[in-house]
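Researcher: Next sequence.
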Amino acid sequence: MVIRYLSRSSSVRTAALALGTLVLLPTPVAAARPHAEPAPPRPVPAYSSTLLDRPGVQVRPGPAAPGLPGDVSALAWLVADAHTGEVLAAKDAHRPLPPASTLKSLFALAALPHLDPHQRHIVARDELDHVGDGSSLVGVAPGRAYRVADLWRGVFLSSGNDAVHVLARLNGGMRRTVEQMRAKARELGARDTHVVSPDGYDAAGQVSSAYDLAVFGKAGLADPEFTRYCSTPVARFPAGGWSYPIHNTNRLLTGADGVAPYPGLLGVKNGYTSHAGSTLISAARRGERTLIVTVLNPQVSGARAVYEEARSLLDWGFAAAGKVRPVGSLLPQSKASRTAQGPVHAAVAEGKALRTEPQRSDWPAVLLVIAGMAAVLAGVVMAIRRRAATVARRARFRGEFGERERVRRPSGE
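Model: Next structure:
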């Protein structure tokens, strides 16, 4: 009887219908995405990206994107946004190659925080004993006093291996500095780099990649002291009672040797050895956008090739910004996953800057659904209890009424 009365209860039927509706609701993720068009894949850490792990050129152009320059002969290269870390295009991003003096960027990232730029140091002869033959030198002399800041200018402008060795000794020694550089590379998510010598001099097993060097450039530009050194075109280096000018060997910055200076160039570091060929980390700012380009070992002969290929890639990157989808990220895996950006829609086709929305958590919606289901269940229980009480009262009433009728009527009528 209770079941029969419950089935007739409109309040219970309404509650059950509401409960069923909640149960059949789509998941919060689907409800939070009203766009009809499918979302493109999010940028992911480049070292785990299936795109950047592939050999060859990787780019995802939109309809209005310019074509990649055809004059880039480097074995590996990469173009990235220095602010967001988005990789716009790359070729063999994780190919291990000798970095030459571009590895000094990692040396600076590891050692700069530990050295006071105003400290004065008298150079000992043994600090220069292991500088490699044929190394680039700024002219550090034993027995002469230098400020740490002078030595850093010797590193960034003249690519002086002699200055690197003195700074490494001040930093606790070559072995300690190498360990710090390896730890810094791991911290930044640069998994292709193996450090043997802090100055980038050719050594067995010493490699980096276009991706890792871009990571070092991005991290360096976030440090004002690093940026100040790498963007200085000319400075004076002490030589006892006098000083002499030193010029930045990055020709895109200074415009030397027939290479036109690149507008808005910030540095970062160039290098060359007979084994590595020419290598370069370049960064340039145009408006509110800063791009990083790395170029490793152009196959075209001539000292200018690495700079002209970097110029072509910078020009392409500024023209393509907002018109291509990222193929990876310079961010470490944990940070990239926390700052993963949402879908890109018509902005690519319209040529607008790529704008993405932060990933919203689905837990608030899940909790709302759970709370709603709990409320409906509570209503169902209350309705059942009320109906059961009504049924019980009616049963008692009928029992009492029937007993009175039997008392009033004589037996047998």
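Model: Residues 363-408 form the longest helix (46 residues). Residues 1-38, 40-48, 337-362, 400-413 have pLDDT under 50 and may be disordered.
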